[in-house]
Amino acid sequence: MSYPNQLYTAFSLIGSVFCAIPFYWHLEAWNTATCLFMIWTGLGCMMQCINSIVWNGNMINRAPVYCDISTRIQVALNSAIPACSLCINRRLYKIASMKSVVITHEDKRRAVIQDLLIGMGIPILQIISQYIISSNRYIIFEDFGPSFSNVTMLPAFFLFHMWPVAIGMVSFFYCVRTIYIFYTRQRQFSELMLAPGLSRGRYLRLMAIAGVEMLATIPLGTYLIVYDSKRPMRHWISWADTHSDYSTVYQIPAFIWKNDAASVYGLELFRWSPVACAFIFFALFGFADEAFLHYRRAYTLLASRLGFSTFTLHGSSYACVVHVGPSKLIGADPLLLLLVIHLCLT
Length: 346
Prior knowledge:
Layout: H1 5-20, H2 23-28, H3 32-54, H4 64-96, H5 105-132, E1 138-141, E2 145-147, H6 154-184, H7 186-192, H8 200-229, H9 239-242, E3 249-252, H10 254-257, H11 261-285, H12 289-305, E4 309-312, E5 319-322, H13 326-329, H14 334-345
Parallel strand pairs: 1-3
Antiparallel strand pairs: 1-2, 4-5
Helix pairs in contact: 1-3, 1-11, 3-4, 3-5, 3-11, 4-5, 4-6, 4-8, 5-6, 6-8, 8-11
């Protein structure tokens, strides 16, 4: 039994918002890897949210240029999120194996460039390589929207299917090394956490998000490789033969693809994966101390813009916002004032 398409629309929209909320303070801290993770995940959520709205109940080829862009982003996402996880694990390993807590501006600039080459360069290469085994421009599935198309042939495993698994294996190596250093050099690790922009909590949360993504990528990627290897293979003849029908746009009704288990599994897994990543990321980073600090700053700024007065009680890091209108304060019930103070302190 299928679920309402609006359910996915709601969750994907929330997922894109979840990716946007922590972006500012991660960018401020030069966390390029996590910023790339949020960009790709949020882009995937927002794009599929739009697709689920535009193609809800129809399969009309209404926006060819947008469909081309959307399918290229889908191809990039095949390796983009694993590549971002690799950037995070690699960065955590570099931090754990550092001999000094001093991080120069040149070190930060070099780290940013390396993360961009991995987090943006690999997905771009994925887009280029996928075109080699692409049989037609795109396919429009009712309720899903446009999707890319691959020919099931031997080169497809090396040009498309193997990328997430290979990236996940490299990420696994860095993750294991980081965990080993973390548990064998506790004292040195504690000193490293004194560096600006670093904390034990943030470090562990980064390990968690990268580890979860890696543990999901390798098994799922391996399963898809095994599954596709059992399908009838088409032999590579020539470039012209593979792309002879490239301009064709296939349109698949919902009652056809939703009655095919392989299609349902592939399409639903693909579009729900970024949503799951977004919710897991926000669960780890959206409720941290640094997150609440920025929430309070934003709330205080918004309150002041709306004509409210803000103040912070001594001995508390929480801001209290009250309206300063005399009619609201003069003759107020003392119990109400005590309640306001209590809310400020808790």
